[in-house]
Prior knowledge:
By secondary structure, the chain is an alpha/beta fold. The protein is built from 6 helices and 9 strands; from the N terminus they run αββαβαβαβαββββα.
Amino acid sequence: MFLAYNWVRLIGGSLRLEVTGEEQFKGNDSKLIFCGWHGKSLIFASYFRRKGYWVIISNSNDGDIQNEVFSRLGYKTIRGSTGRGGVRAALQGVKALKAGGTMAITPDGPRGPSGIVQGGVMLMAHKSGAALVPVGLSAQKAIYIKSWDKYMLPYPFSKARMVFGEPLVIPDGADEAAVEEVRLKLESEINRLEAIAGDWG
C-alpha cells in the first residue's frame, strides 16, 4: 500500500504536466464525472488528489489496497464494480452526484474491455443529471505493463498532457437509444483527446 501511494504521489508529482481545457470548470466542478481510460489512471489519480472527488473502487483484494491508496490521496471512495456490488455502487454514486459531488471515473474499468465505456457510469450520469467530461491523457516517456488495459507508468519527470473535452449530458427522458448515443460519443471523445495528448511530434 505504501509503495503504491508513494509511487502515485512522487512520480505523479514529478511530471511536467501540461493541462488544456480545464478552465471551463474552474470554480464550477459540481455534478461532473471526469472520465479517462483505466490505463492512464496514474496521472488522473495524481492530478485530482486532495480535491475530495469521489471514486469507485472494486470489491476485490486489489481493491482493498486501492481503497487505502485513494483515501490517503484525499478521495472519497465507493466500493463496487461491474461484477460485485455494481448496482449498489452506482446508486451511491448517484446520491453523491445529486448532492453536488464530483467523480473521477475510469469508465472502462476495473476489468475492461479497454476503451469501452461500461453501463455503470452511464447509469450514474442519467439518474443524477451529471455531465460526463471526456479526458485524454498521455506521457511522453513511459513503460506500458502487459495487462488488459496496457497500464501506463510514466517515467519520473516526463512531459505529460491532460486534455479536457466538452461535457456531455444525457437529455432528460432519454431512452435507451439516446443513452447509447451519448455512450458512444464519450468513447469517441476520449479517444480523440488521447490522440491529441499523445501527439508528441
